[in-house]
Design a protein that fits this description.
The protein has a domain of 218 residues: Type I PLP-dependent aspartate aminotransferase-like (Major domain) (Aspartate Aminotransferase, domain 2). The protein is built from 14 helices and 15 strands. Strand 8 and strand 9 form a beta hairpin. Helix 4 packs parallel to helix 5. The N terminus is likely disordered.
Length: 449
C-alpha cells in the first residue's frame, strides 16, 4: 500500500469519527419514510423505496435504421468495399482528440493488436491491475507474456502506482493500466515510471470512453489506447473495438496487421502480404450502428458524471458506505459502473451478500463486482502450459506463484458494490432513490441477519 494509505482499522476508526460528527451536526438525515411504516426492509415485507423501472440499455434510435438497411442492401459489408468504418474512425479520433483510430472486431482484439505491433510477446512481462475484466489477463497470456499484477488501491479501485516498481524485472516490457469502471488511473505516476524504466504504456480504456485525465481523454495518454464497443458499453454496437494513437508509423502497422498484413502507409509493399497479419477488421454495419450511437455519447457522459457526483454527495456520510475516490488528476470519469465499498463493521458485520440482497429488494439492483481472478485456476493453467514452460525459467514461474498476494485487491473484492451505468442516465430524484435505499438498509442493519 502507498505511504498515505490507511490500515483497515484506521479507516474504520476514521469513518466512525466522521459519522459521529455528522450525526451530531444533523447532517446525516434519517430515511425519509421510516416513520410512516415504510421503514421496514422490502426483503422483510416492507414497501420498497423504488418501484419505478430503470432505463434499458442499449438504447436504439429508429433514425439509424435507414443507414443500416442501406449498408445491408448494398452488399458492401466489409471495410474493403465500403466507407462506413473509415467514417466512424475519423469521427471517434476527432472526439478523443487523437490523430488516428483503427477499428477492430472487439476490444479484446484491439488489445491483442496493440500488444503485437508494439512487440510485446513471448517471454515478456506486462504489469497490469488484478481488478479488471478477465480479457486483460487473457490478452497477456494469449501473447505468451506473463501478466504481473501490481496491487489495487481499494480507495480508487485502480492499479496502485506505488506498487508498480517493485514488480518490474529485466523481462518487463510494458505497463497496461486499466481505467476500470470508466475511472481514470493515475496516469502521471504510471507514465513517469514507464519513462524511468523505458517501458511501453498500453491503456486498456475499454470501459473509459470520454473519461479525462487532466483534460485529455483516457486512451490517448500512452503509446496506444484500446476501447470496446460491446453491447453493454456506452458506445455499443454488439461487438466492436478500436486502437487509437498519435504515432503514424505505429498506427500504419496497426492498420496493416488488422487487415491480414496488407501494405499500408509506411508498411511498404515488398510482397502482397509484407508482414505477419490477421483479420481483425470491423464490419460496415457495426460502424453504422456506432455512427448513430456516438451522437449521444457526449451528452450521456456528462449526465452520468453529474449524477455520479450528486450521488456521491448523498451517500458519502452514511456509515460503512465509501464511494470511490477519484485521483486529483481526474477531470471527468465515465462511470461505466458506479462503485462504492461496503464496510460490514458498520452494518453489524452483516455479509455483503445480505446488503446486496436488501438493496436490490428496495428497487436498486446492484452486484459485488470482480473476484480475485488470479485464484480461479486461470493463471495456474497458463503457468503449467507448454508455452509458458518454454518461455520462462522454472525459477521465475515458481517465484511468480509466491508473489500472487494482493491485500489491497483482496479487500476491494470483498467490499465492492457496483451500480449499472444505465441507472445514472436518469434524474437527480432517481439518485435520491438510490441514496434513500442505501440509508434505509443502514438504518435497518440489525435486521439484515
Amino acid at each position: 500500500m502507498g505511504k498515505n494509505a490507511m490500515t483497515r482499522r484506521q479507516f474504520v476508526g476514521a469513518a466512525s469519527a466522521g459519522t459521529l460528527a455528522a450525526l451530531a451536526s444533523g447532517s446525516l438525515p434519517a430515511y425519509a419514510n421510516i416513520s410512516n411504516g415504510a421503514g421496514k426492509l422490502a426483503m422483510k415485507g416492507g414497501r420498497p423505496v423504488r418501484a419505478k423501472a430503470w432505463p434499458e440499455w442499449p438504447i436504439w434510435d429508429k433514425a439509424a435504421e435507414q443507414r443500416i438497411l442501406s449498408i445491408l442492401r448494398s452488399g458492401n459489408w466489409y471495410r474493403g468495399r465500403g466507407h462506413t468504418v473509415s467514417e466512424f474512425e475519423e469521427k471517434y479520433a476527432a472526439l478523443l482528440g487523437v490523430k488516428r483510430c483503427i477499428c477492430t472486431m472487439n476490444g479484446t482484439n484491439a488489445l491483442l493488436t496493440a500488444m503485437h505491433v508494439l512487440d510485446v510477446g513471448v517471454g515478456d512481462e506486462v504489469i497490469v491491475s488484478p481488478y479488471t475484466f478477465i480479457a486483460t489477463y487473457n490478452v497477456v497470456i494469449g501473447s505468451a507474456a506473463l501478466p504481473v499484477f501490481a496491487d489495487t488501491d481499494p480507495e480508487t479501485f485502480q492499479i496502485d502506482p506505488d506498487t508498480i516498481e517493485q514488480r518490474i524485472t529485466r523481462r518487463t516490457r510494458a505497463i497496461m493500466p486499466v481505467h476500470i469502471l470508466g475511472i481514470p488511473a493515475d496516469m502521471d505516476k504510471i507514465k513517469a515510471i514507464a519513462a524511468k524504466h523505458n517501458l511501453i504504456v498500453i491503456e486498456d480504456a475499454c470501459q473509459a470512453w470520454l473519461a479525462e485525465w487532466r483534460g485529455k481523454k483516457c486512451g490517448t495518454l500512452g503509446d496506444l489506447g484500446c476501447f470496446s464497443f460491446q453491447n453493454s458499453k456506452h458506445l455499443p454496437c454488439g461487438e466492436g473495438g478500436a486502437v487509437v494513437g498519435n504515432d503514424d508509423a505505429i498506427m500504419d502497422r496497426v492498420h496493416s496487421y488488422h487487415n491480414c498484413g496488407r501494405p499500408y502507409g509506411c508498411v511498404e509493399k515488398t510482397s502482397s502480404y509484407p508482414i505477419v497479419g490477421t483479420n481483425r477488421r470491423m464490419t460496415e454495419y457495426q460502424a453504422g450502428i456506432l455512427l448513430n450511437q456516438i451522437q449521444r455519447l457526449e451528452a450521456d457522459t456528462e449526465r452520468r458524471w453529474q449524477n455520479a457526483q450528486y450521488l456521491t454527495s448523498r451517500i458519502k456520510d452514511i456509515p460503512g458506505i465509501v464511494p470511490c475516490r477519484l485521483y486529483e488528476g481526474t477531470t471527468k470519469a465515465a462511470y461505466h459502473l458506479y462503485p462504492f465499498r461496503y464496510v460490514k463493521e458498520h452494518f453489524n458485520n452483516a455479509p455483503r451478500g445480505k446488503f446486496l440482497a436488501a438493496l436490490s429488494a428496495e428497487g436498486v439492483p446492484c452486484s459485488g463486482g470482480y473476484g480475485p481472478q488470479y485464484r480461479d485456476g486461470l493463471i495456474e493453467a497458463a503457468l503449467n502450459s507448454k508455452n509458458f514452460k518454454r518461455s520462462f525459467p522454472k525459477k521465475r514461474l515458481d517465484r511468480y506463484r509466491q508473489e500472487l498476494d494482493y491485500p489491497g485487491n483482496d479487500q476491494l473484492c470483498a467490499e465492492a458494490v457496483w451500480l449499472s451505468q444505465r441507472m445514472l442516465l436518469t434524474d437527480k430524484s432517481d439518485m435520491d432513490d438510490i441514496a434513500d435505499a442505501i440509508l434505509k438498509v443502514y438504518e435497518n442493519r440489525d435486521k439484515l441477519a
